[in-house]
Amino acid sequence: MSELIRLETVDSTNLYALQNFAELxxxxxxxxYTQTEGKGRRGRKxxxxxxxxxxASFVLKRADASKCAPWIGCIASLNTLxxxxxxxxxxxxxxxxxxxxxxxIAGVLCESHSxxxxxxxxxxxxxxxxxxxxxxxxVEAIGVPATSILIExxxxxxxxxxxxxxxxxxxxxxxxxxxxxYGIWKKENRLIGKKVSVQMENGEKSTGIFKxxxxxxxxxxxxxxxxxxxxxxxxxxxxxxxxxxxxSI
Length: 249
Ligand code: BTN
Known about the structure:
Layout: E1 4-10, H1 13-19, E2 29-35, E3 54-60, H2 69-84, E4 90-93, E5 97-100, E6 103-114, E7 121-130, H3 136-142, H4 149-153, H5 159-174, H6 178-187, E8 195-199, E9 205-213, E10 219-222, E11 228-231, E12 235-238
Parallel strand pairs: 1-2
Antiparallel strand pairs: 2-3, 3-7, 4-5, 5-6, 6-7, 8-9, 8-12, 9-10, 10-11
Bound molecules: biotin.
């Protein structure tokens, strides 16, 4: 079994893994009891209350993993969640989230590492946050539609055990062929065919039909005027009327 490093308090497990990249083996995973500066995508903060959730960073020492690393993180999180709950409405929301129904339960932030004194990428840190034991009040305080295993099932999860299964799933899926990984990630994406809006980093928002996911993992949208537009990143929302749910996601 690959190394599993358990920390008490750390700024961010991603930062720790990047700073200690040379000493960490391929397949090593760092988990923390709490993070003081947990990072989300697009410069957002990842709320990391002590002893409640999974805060993990998995080390992939492969120069060619940039494209599929987020898919690996999503699939491993999804499969681990599936083995810890009976919930059938777990799915991947493009690009890097796992949802339970209409609420986010896990997120993935991948960061690349470059060899010192060069700009050559020699690996990726796959950062994963999974909400396990946060209560409704704690989740509501974050201010975005999110949930946890506890909220969904009423059952507390054993964090150490979840971390071990997550690492096993990460090791397994990361050894698979890129096409296979892409196929699973794409199959678990649920919004294809729906009317969605994508908000880009610069605030620009585009609305259209989520037509398909390209081989590069881009969201391809059919716009008014019948032309396609491709997005490599962005925040996706879907109207309640177009989804079997009560609120926008
Ligand atoms: C997102 O959905 O915005 C991505 C969230 C990723 C959070 C995890 S928690 C462990 C790792 N360390 C961090 O600082 N961030 C990631």
